[in-house]
Amino acid sequence: MMEGLLQGFGVLMTVQNVSLCILGAVLGTLVGVLPGLGPATTIALLLPISLKLDPTGAIILLAGIYYGVAYGGTITSVLMRIPGEASSVVTCIDGHAMAKRGRAGAALGIAAIGSFIAGTFGILGVMLLSPPLAEIVIAFGPWEYAALMMAGLSLIAFFAASGIAKAALMAFLGLFLGLVGLDPISGTPRFTFGVPALVDGINIAPLALGMFGLSELLFLALSKDAKPEILRPPSTLLGFMPNREEWKRSAAPIARGSVLGFFVGLLPGGGAVLASFLSYAVEKRLTRHPDEFGRGAIEGVAGPESANNSGTAGAFIPLLTLGIPANAVTALLLGALLVHGVQPGPMILERQPEVYWGVIASMYFGNFILLVLNLPFVGLFVRALEVPRRYMATAILLVCAIGTWSVGLNHFDVLMAVLFGFVGFALRRGGFDLGPLILAYVLGPTLERSLRQALLIADGDLTEVVNHPIALGFLVAAALILLSGMLMRSRPAVVQDGGS
Amino acid sequence: MNRREAILASGATLLAAPAVRAQGATWPDREITILVAYGAGGSTDVCTRALAGEAEKILGVPVQIVNRTGGQGTSAPAQVASMRPDGHTLATAGMAALAILPHVLDLPYTLDSFTFLPGYARYLYGIAVPAESPIRTAQDLIAQGRQRRVTFAAAGAPQNIGMFELNKKLNTRFGFVPFPGGAEAVTAAIGRHVDFVVQNPPEMLPALQSGRLRLIASASDVRWKEYPDVQTLREQGVDLAVDSVLGLVGPKGIPQDRLERLNTALLQAARSPGVGETVSRFGMVPAPTPATEFEAMQRGAFAEFGPHLRENGLARR
To answer: Does residue A269 have a pLDDT over 70?
Structure first.
């Protein structure tokens, strides 16, 4: 093991590979900051260039982008309430609320440090636990995924600050939006109204950017108070950092988020998005300050931001040891490996140890670079909040428009984002939480596909689920989550975030 | 060498050039774009990039690749069908986009919307079972399929249609469980969530080499080069070969002289050793196919698949 790691650092420590690692991390951060332009698009764009590199160098570069994105996605979430990536959607809730209280620096700082700790934990996990964990991935079939997604959906009980009925309504809307596109089994289009651009479904970018970013813009435009809310930003780097109290409250969420994110990230399909929502729900359940959730609780930033980073690392296990991509990004990485003649799978450690250990070593190094890169800039980013609102509003509009357009180079997406902006504004005005909507939208398609696959396998017999203990376990968990969420709801004074 | 090229070569270039240019003999005079229907890094993408690289040398102009994904691989041909037939924009298309999905989706094109160009690679398919499975040969599989409902994972057409054909011919009960990608289908078989998987080599090889899956037959016309001892379905007495050739199409009505130039150049590129090597490395079989043959292949398959898709409730009507 140590030998392998040393070999890995040996591979990494060439001028070329170190610069590629740094380049990947920087590019990833930028891509993460820009909403819409996701890691998958970027890696697809860079793939032809990476063909000119040797396999290890290419993977170091592409992997750097992948985990760099998880860092960068936080920044716009906190500062502008625009999720840079789907996995940063939850961060919008408390991260932006913290920014409004003047604690943007603390939110960004804790996110960067939590990400670093979680990322490092995730890499350790990849190194130590790869083979046994790969078996878990294999044990998950359609029944297990369907049940896991049900458990994921039950998390809405914890986002139901506005009442379980309203949350359920939002979840149904999210599920419906996820149905648009091709039927996953028969491949026939549905709810597309003859619009070709809808055949591939509604993309997360117009949905999230519209509902969160553009609706925020409408609130900004309507508010009379033209003064920036942040008072006097501290002048030293230390002043931007989380204070002692915030540190104390973040430690446990970071630890829990790291572990949770790693295991959820392992599983194809759910990944980092589910991990971040799950962590948020857990922290909301365990916190001693439930009244602060939705109004800027640092636990609501520390946990999810750690979870989405260790989830990123977790996704490497099935990729490297089984050749199974856990999401669109690792699927591209798999393609990149194959292009270079590297066949991932159980044999990779014997046949191409230099690639395997080179990538692991580069992940350690890349995470360190990202921390060094992100912390000093926290102060700079926070100053962006001092920008007068009219400029800030223009910037948000521009970022949302470019972000949406860059996904598919499609003006229809931009129009949809505008539509979702108004819908999101109306919903938030009406006291609805958007979290359940996004969660259901992300999990719904996997739930539907898995359930229908399961029924195809069982020839339509729903009782077959009793032969799948893991699936049963998730269903019980779903019931418990719903129950405990409802019990918590009976406590008074839960505040929702809508309306700014 | 056609007549116009002969004139050019004969030294009459100076005098003939303006007149000839008007007729397009110096075509192509600018870059050609190929829309690849699948994402960067996949086998379709890499093989087409290799082809483009060779074609570039022959045609003397840049041949660039644009990945136009979506619509299950129909977005690229759909876009090309609506473009000016100047021969500068082409798209990749295989069995799925040309012979199968027109039955399933409401597409803006029919087979008559295209000018067919050469094919260059053949997808290879195989049938594999989990290592613990008692099924060892194609005949075992058929026997099982006659006794009970046997489920298989696949990413979609045309593999599923092959199995539907068997259901009809041999009275088997193979149940299709669709997965969004080949890797997911293979994983489901490794975990024994389905009885077998029908996919391509790139996704199956890691599982086969580590012994988690066992290849029981090549579902194509030829054996896999990695598993020369595993017979094809036909060799094992099961009359089926799933066949899908990847080729290029352009909009209907590309001028004849340009078409000839493209056909010659693309076929020559498809025959080059470099393209063949890349194609093999990606688990496909080099298959330089003249345009007329490629068109006949797709039209034949289109007519044949319609009934199978309708019977299994997968067609629009």
So the answer is: no
